[in-house]
Amino acid sequence: xxxxxxxxxxxxxxxxxxxxxxxxxxxxxxxxxxxxxxxxxxxxxxxxxxxxxxxxxxxxxxxxxxxxxxxxxxxxxxxxxxxxxxxxxxxxxxxxxxxxxxxxxxxxxxxxxxxxxxxxxxxxxxxxxxxxxxxxxxxxxxxxxxxxxxxxxxxxxxxxxxxxxxxxxxxxxxxxxxxxxxxxxxxxxxxxxxxxxxxxxxxxxxxxxxxxxxxxxxxxxxxxxxxxxxxxxxxxxxxxxxxxxxxxxxxxxxxxxxxxxxxxxxxxxxxxxxxxxxxxxxxxxxxxxxxxxxxxxxxxxxxxxxxxxx
Length: 310
Hints:
By secondary structure, the chain is of the alpha/beta class. The protein has a domain at 113-306: Alpha/Beta hydrolase fold, catalytic domain (Rossmann fold, 3-Layer(aba) Sandwich). The protein is built from twelve helices and six strands. Strands 2-1-3-4-5-6 form a six-stranded parallel sheet, sandwiched between helices. The protein is globular and about 65 Å long. The two termini are 37 Å apart.
């Protein structure tokens, strides 16, 4: 669904640019007048990311995280521009099925890894990680959370099916790695199992650890601009988030590791990416999607996969 939507947006944009350029040449416009609006259109992503960084800086307020310098935010913006352009311009619209799931891994296999993407994304978001994990023989499965615009708890069955697949293939509880909204979807998955009458301890044991990356556990200031159900749920201290927190135990929270950054341009203020009772890990100077490009985060995934039980 999302891949098709992104392809249509790209097609409409390309036709619009081609039509504009053709019309300008027929009218005899100069090169500057012709390419100026085109470059402005192509720069919309850069402008949006810069605006997000500006908003994050403006609402940092009394957040206990160190306030990033302007230079740090500019570097984070540049890396985010590159990574988001690749993800939304190629990987998610055209290559979301480029890397198949390998639930049994290769060689010794071992514990599997479930990858859960965030808002307005699909499994193509994880394309940079797939070949690296598969080269190491790691069993890996990812989901495409759809419909794109719905309540977050509606993704619970997709996550449950992926957990079952990895558990059956490896005989071990998977490590779950989530980006952004994906971390909330996994928390909502647990609540859905409890509402169905499952035992809390048994449900908790179905995951080894949950590593969240830039997840708005306490909501995010940016979500105030969203109008769809899952965006509304991610508003700061929303009733949905409060209900989710009330359903959780200390033992469940202890399975979480929360990677966050003071330069995050989507989940802010920074403390919003942390969870009471979970281990926080600060990766300074990284923007929202750019956190996945941090080598330390990938190394942490491998370490957690090999670690003992909680």
